[in-house]
Amino acid sequence: MTQFDIDEQIEELAGGEFERQPVPQSRLKSWKSFLGMYAGEHAAGTEFVIGPLFLTTGVSAFDLIIGLLVGNLLAVLSWRYLTAEIAVKHRLTLYYHLEKICGKKLVVGYNLANGILFCFLAGAMITVSATAVGVPFDMAMPKLTDTMPNSLTWVLIVLVIGAVISLIAARGYETVSKAANWMSPVIVLAFVACGVVALGQLGIGSFGEFWEIWGEGSEPFPGQIKYTFWHVVLWSWFANAAMHIGMSDLSVFRFAKKASSGWTTAAGMYVGHYMAWIAAALLYAVYLRTPEAQELLGLGQAPTVAPGPLAYNAIGVFGIIAVVLAGWTTANPTIYRAGLAFQAILPKLSTFWVTILAGGVATAAGLFPAFAMKLLDFVALYGFILAPVGAVIAFEHFFGKRAGIVPNYAEYHNLGINRAVLLAWIISAGGFYLLSVTQGIFLSFLTLPAWILSGLLFLWLSRMAHVKPGAAAAG
């Protein structure tokens, strides 16, 4: 039997995506595959919302520009030296890797939380695309404070977009990657065009004029807090905490030939989370000068953040197309990840059908604008919840042998729940979240402490409980 035949059998057993097998050598991909995916995913729908939302926090020019430089660098380093390193060593999905350490029962709860949170994020991107599709129909756009659908037109548009995105994601990694590679240059060009046009509309002809107009920022909009340099650094670092320090992108980088493919995330961080955020913020700055926005501000209300009209006002129909594609390139891999999470809960269902299920949940979430309008808060929360579990994988990989713990302890002893993992997750996430709520501390300030505490607790509790390989298993 040839290696190709063996690989084909493995792929068939794994539903085509190797959910419970290491990715074979013949299926590994070069860095170019990841470059397009990350550039597309992160120069995408979220950027059309996050950029304007930064303005609502009243952030200064220095704090935004320099803060994003630092925060995005820290994110790239996290992907490169944590996620990609572990991914190419084991070549397992996050969910199967966790199952070996945490136990099947505990992973079911984690996967459910992870899958639902990813669906909500994808739903926010469906919302973003819907604001663009609704422009030709003169659809009423959701307000910053809206939570419920505001019209039948809105509902129909969201359902159609959600169905298309779900079908693309359900076709697997190859289709998701190809879609991102095709769409990302168009989206990047649109962001550049939007930024240039917005600068002209604002009458900015030099960096000095830009600095003078933005300057020290402003007072935050009603319901928002004032962002400082450290707010920007830590929020941008942990905007994708679930993917890097939370290890979700083990499922993506398991296909990489080398860990150096982790550097491709810089395309997403500096094209998307830098240039695109600033360009989108400039679009919103143009809108804030309109009589409509000024009237709302005068009434103490926050003006609408609707990416579709903002882009259309800058670059016309091309802006509508770009926003639709941008929503797709974020929602597609996010639904794909959610599908992998649900696959671990429902292993008898094919990858296709669990991804369709994830797409259905995402589409339902997309009907409710609150997920997009509160994106800064939601992104911080979902990264904070999931990151401490990623610490378990990272600390076992880098420090487990030195700490003298048994690797893949749940698998070795056939445990349903590894209590060391459960306690580390609950104590770190629950304790620091309670601190955030009771003391009014910005949640992104606490993500790294929660991650570190979770990893340390896991090592300590594991060392207390583990037995040596070959010794009698306890309980």
TrEMBL record:
GO MF term set: cytosine transmembrane transporter activity
User: Does this entry carry the keyword Membrane?
Assistant: yes
Which InterPro entries does the protein's record reference? CodB
Segments traversing the membrane: 61-82, 108-132, 152-170, 182-207, 267-290, 310-331, 352-372, 378-395, 416-435, 441-461
Q: Which UniProt keywords apply?
A: Membrane, Transmembrane, Transmembrane helix
Cellular component, GO, one term:
plasma membrane
Is Cytoplasm a UniProt keyword of this protein? Answer: no
The protein in question is named Uncharacterized protein
